[in-house]
Amino acid sequence: MSCFGPRRQTVGQVFRGDSRAVRRPTSVGTATLVTALNQDDSADEGSDSRASDVRLTLPARPENVAVVRHVLGAFAEALLLPDTVIEDMRLAVTEACTNVVRHAYADGEPGPVEILIRPVGDTLQVIVSDEGRGLRPSAASSGPGLGLPLIAALTHELEIEPAGNAGSRLRMSFLREQPLEPA
Amino acid sequence: MTTEPQREPPTRVSVVAGPLVGPVLRRVVGMLAARADLPLDRLDDAVLVADLIAARAPAHVTGDRVDVALEPGPRSLALRVGPLRAGGGEALIVDAAVPGVGNVIEQLADELTVSPEDSGEFLHVRLAYAATTA
């Protein structure tokens, strides 16, 4: 099955599991996670008392997507994540941030994009949220585009939901260590 | 009738006090300093200041997070660190002293102030580059 298979992206929907179709063989099986960064195994949402989360709030401008990628790299290096996980994370989060830059706010109306990165159990969670117009069909494109299907293919779990009074929130989870490929 | 251009939201970094503060803050400061067109030596200074703040600020914050707001300007970068506990701003500056070198933040910053606000103290650091003519 293609990783861009016929999955529908709807607000509030959670995608799980079949992202393995785009997994590259992993060569890292012994990544040692830094103990100091892994004190947080609780999964309660919205808690501010997490042991090692990073919050970034940036103007939703194209050049700031690179800042997010850079910070993701720092986080991933500190956690000694496998290269394949880092690549998937970078690509998925880049897509999510690019969506915010392109679609969340009206032209010339600056708004924030917030990125929360935190370990949750055996996954790494990245939440990208904005205060913009929310998810809706884009008049600027003729189809659904590759962004969301690509993100869904790269993540272990993807949840899309409205964020507070305005805007949208993409909650992406990545397995810290990828399952071994069947022989 | 004229409308004022909307002000861009600031860049904010908030990291739980711990080993991630340094790697995250230095990267964000480095990228914003480069974008602000600071020359290489001042970019290096900005990253050094970021490293010092990352190392010293956790002892002086009010909660368990280090919060920094960053505002790049034309050939300048301003950092606002806090909220810090009462006296934390001055203490952070004092902590940045290196034996034999002196206070690094004081030497490198073009502006360095501490301001009390409702939620605590804030340390303001501004690094700039002004070309001089001979």
Structural class of chain B: alpha+beta
Average per-residue pLDDT of chain A, rounded, comes to 73
> Averaging pLDDT over every residue of chain B, what do you get?
90
Shape of chain A: globular
Per DSSP, what share of the residues of chain B sits in E-state strands of 2 or more residues? 25-35%
The count of β-strands of chain B is 7
Structure description:
The complex is a heterodimer of chains A (183) and B (134). With 183 residues, chain A is α+β, with helices and mostly antiparallel strands. Chain A contains 3 helices and 6 strands, in the order E-E-H-H-E-E-H-E-E. Chain A has a 6-stranded antiparallel beta sheet, covered by helices on one side. In chain A, helix 2 packs antiparallel against helix 3. The longest helix of chain A is centred in the middle third of the chain and has 22 residues, at 83-104. In chain A, 39% of the residues are buried. Residues 1-13 and 17-49 of chain A have low confidence and may be disordered. Chain B has 4 helices and 7 strands. In chain B, strands 1-2-3-7-6 form a 5-stranded antiparallel beta sheet. A two-stranded antiparallel ribbon of chain B has the order 4-5. In chain B, helix 1 (21-35) runs antiparallel to helix 2. The longest helix of chain B has 17 residues, at 40-56. The chains are: A alpha+beta (183), B alpha+beta (134). The A-B interface holds A 34, 36-37, 49-59, 61, 63-64, 66-67, 70-71, 73-75, 77-78, 108-112 and B 6-16, 18-20, 23-24, 27-28, 31-32, 35, 64. Strand 2 of chain A pairs antiparallel with strand 1 (11-16) of chain B.
